[in-house]
Amino acid sequence: xxxxxxxxxxxxxxxxxxxxxxxxxxxxxxxxxxxxxxxxxxxxxxxxxxxxxxxxxxxxxxxxxxxxxxxxxxxxxxxxxxxxxxx
Length: 87
Prior knowledge:
Elements: H1 6-17, H2 19-33, E1 39-43, E2 49-53, H3 58-66, H4 70-86
Antiparallel strand pairs: 1-2
């Protein structure tokens, strides 16, 4: 296959290392078993600090943590599919 896949290769290496599974297990433990949420400090109009829950897709959070660009992964997958179609 002649399509370069640096992001898919990076993702594959993370998965093969077991780091993604460990991070996923930890996230599940925090959110499901402990009932914790991620939050960020913010201020209201009166300059009072408070924590505000942060909502996100776990796959995007993990990709950000590992430095993986999910948009590039999708582009690489589409390029692979296109190459296979033209063969």
